[in-house]
Every structure is written in C-alpha cells, then in structure tokens.
Write a structure and sequence with these properties.
By secondary structure, the protein is α/β, with parallel strands linked by helices. It is about 40% helix and about 15% strand. The chain binds flavin mononucleotide.
C-alpha cells in the first residue's frame, strides 16, 4: 500500500462517531490513507460504509476491527455500577445492562474477506496466523496496533504486514492486547525505538501527532507513516458530536481512565472522569454497555461532563479544516521541518 500513498499520513480509525465514510474518502482522495472504524457497528453497517467509501473514491483505504477478546473475564464490577446508578437516575437515564460481546468479530472478518480493503487493521489484540493468512489471500495488508515490544513480536510471529505503534499520548482506548494493572505507558518516540530493536516490519506511528513537524519527527525516527486521530476530529467530514468538538477546542488536560468503558483510554478530563476513575474496574466491554445510555443522552443534551471526550495529549493544536486542506497544511509544515533538518550544521 505504501507505493500507493501520495502523503505519509494515515487517518487513524475513530470509533464512536468521528470516523465516517466521508472522512475516510476525503483523506484517501487527498493522497493519505483513510480508515473506517468497525468498532461498535454491525457487520452489515460496516459493509455499507465500505461501499459508501468506494462510491466516493477509487483510492486505497483501511478498515479497523476490534480483535477477538480472549475471554469474558472481568474484575468484579457490581459495586462500581451501583455507584453510577444514583447519578444516572438523577440525570433521568437508566444505566445499560453489563454484558460481554466480541463485537461481532467473525461476521466482521467475513465482511473484510469479501470486501478486501487495502488494509485490514486490528486493535486490542492480534488475529491468528490463519485469519491473517485469509485476509492477505483476499488482497488486504494486515496491520496490528501494538503498545509494547512483546506485542510487536507476537504480531510479527502471527504474520502481520505492518505495525501501528501507539504511544501513550494517543487519544481513545489504548490498543494493548490485554488491559492489566501492571502496565507501562510508553511514549511514542521511546516505543518506536524499542519496537525497531525487536522487529523489522514497516511501522506506522500514532499518538499525539498534530503538526507537520510531528509527522517529520516520526518519519525521522523510522516510521513509514504517521497516523493522526484527534487531528481529524474537527474536520467537517468527521462525525464528532458538537459537545466533543467544543471540548477539543479547550486546552484542558487529558488523562487515562477506565471510568467510561472498563478499558483504559485517554480523554479530556471532565467531571465523570474525575469522579469515577479511581474506582473503575477492568471490565470491558461490560462497563461500556453500562454507561452507553448515559453517554448517548449527554451527547444529545450537550452535557460534556458525562461524555467520554476521547482526545490525544496535544488536542489543543487541532484545526477546523476540511480534511484535504488539513493534509495540505500538514505536508507544508512537514516539508519545512525536513528542510530545516537538512540545513542544520550537524
Ligand atoms: C475518538 C477516538 C476513537 C478511537 N477509536 C479507535 C478504534 O476504533 N480503533 C483503533 O484502532 N483506534 C482507535 N482510536 C485510537 C486512534 O486510532 C489513534 O491511535 C489515536 O487517535 C492516535 O493519537 P492522537 O489522537 O493523539 O492522534 C481512537 C481514538 C479516538 C480519539
């Protein structure tokens, strides 16, 4: 897929609203690699979105899927859910039922195998060697998101074509294969260097990149391309909710939390995140389903204090521009950064 890209920019997959066929198509049409996010959608909707992108562009694009969860184990979550209940009732919304789901993994794999997007990418784990083989056979390159060197080695052994190296700066869920209490949140430059010392695969760098200088930096550090998520969330083509767009324009800080979904994710710190992070269990997707009605209600009513405001650490540098114009500005900056480096005395 690398030869087909006009610019080394990937629009990172953004589940929960921001990713749309219009955004993916605009990015791919501008020479980058747009992505659809299959997370939380039905397999049928994913199929329809792939068709919608293909109506808008002939260029390559990717589709991202949540990897099959290993099993349904979770920390006890009853006390945490009880602590959310009073608050939900005050807001006039009933909590959802905690339940396990694999997000329709098999059905989504079948859609990918038949639609064969240029790239099939996975987060929260690694597909099996057999699954990777089938996707490659259908014509897709397979990318796996990693957050540690151990995950990078496992993805290489399974046969991944490329790795998305996700630093702890990144907005949204951490892509770790298993969310655990003993974890290390490695920053992007450190992780890029560590992964390259273990694995010889093309790397896509993600986490906190909002400028052309940031893109030039990760290319200098050995990445083939930069993946930007938060940077595309204010584009008109994105499906980001109005209260989320507003929060992205502040310089409020972000933090890692399990308070919304039971899986570690980075969002702009709001009241829900402040009040419920300390007690939140590792229980994904059970807690996701419990809080989903509260979050949907809050989005409808513009209440930013109960929404998961996923954002990367540098979200304050976001721009409200159509995706193609944003890519144009980013590439002008990236070229300027490269020229400056070439002109430096050492
Ligand atoms: C709202 C939102 C939703 C996301 N959804 C997904 C997803 O479905 N799959 C995935 O692999 N990564 C997801 N991510 C992570 C991004 O793909 C990417 O790693 C991250 O945005 C990079 O950091 P940045 O936001 O600072 O650019 C999401 C991130 C955000 C902000």
């Amino acid at each position: 897929v690398w030869e087909l890209l006009g610019v080394p920019i990937v629009q990172a997959p953004l589940s929960g609203g921001p990713s749309t066929p219009a955004l993916a198509a605009a990015v791919s049409q501008a020479g980058g690699l747009g992505f659809l996010a299959a997370g939380y959608k039905t397999a049928g909707d994913v199929e329809a979105e792939i068709a919608a992108v293909r109506e808008q562009t002939q260029r390559p694009f990717g589709v991202n899927v949540f990897a099959r969860p290993p099993d349904a184990t979770a920390e006890p979550f009853e006390a945490f859910v009880a602590s959310l209940d009073a608050e939900a009732q005050r807001g006039g919304v009933a909590l959802g039922e905690p339940r396990f789901s694999d997000d329709d993994y098999d059905a989504k794999l079948a859609v990918l195998e038949s639609a064969a997007p240029a790239v099939a990418s996975f987060t929260f784990g690694c597909p099996t060697a057999q699954e990777i083989g089938a996707l490659r056979g259908a014509g897709s390159a397979v990318w796996v998101t990693v957050t540690t060197t151990a995950e990078a080695v496992a993805a290489r052994e399974a046969g991944a074509d490329a790795l998305v190296v996700q630093g702890a700066e990144a907005g949204g869920h951490r892509g770790t294969f298993a969310d655990t209490r003993e974890r290390e949140d490695i920053g992007l430059l450190a992780l890029l260097a560590l992964v390259q010392s273990h694995v010889d695969l093309p790397l896509v760098a993600a986490g906190g990149i909002m400028t052309g200088a940031g893109i030039a930096a990760v290319l200098t550090a050995g990445a083939k391309a930069a993946a930007l998520g938060t940077a595309f969330m204010r584009c008109p083509e994105a499906g980001t909710s109005p209260p989320h767009r507003k929060a992205l324009q502040t310089d409020d800080s972000t933090g890692l939390t399990r308070a919304f979904t039971g899986r570690l994710a980075r969002g702009i710190v709001n009241r829900w995140q402040t009040e419920h992070s300390a007690d939140a269990p590792i229980a994904y997707p059970q807690i996701h389903y419990v809080t989903a009605p509260v979050r949907a209600h809050a989005r409808q009513h513009g209440d930013a204090d109960s929404i998961n405001l996923w954002a990367g650490q540098a979200h304050a540098l976001g721009r409200e521009l159509p995706a193609a114009e944003l890519i144009g500005e980013l590439m002008t900056e990236a070229r300027a950064a490269r020229a400056q480096l070439n002109g430096s005395p050492w």
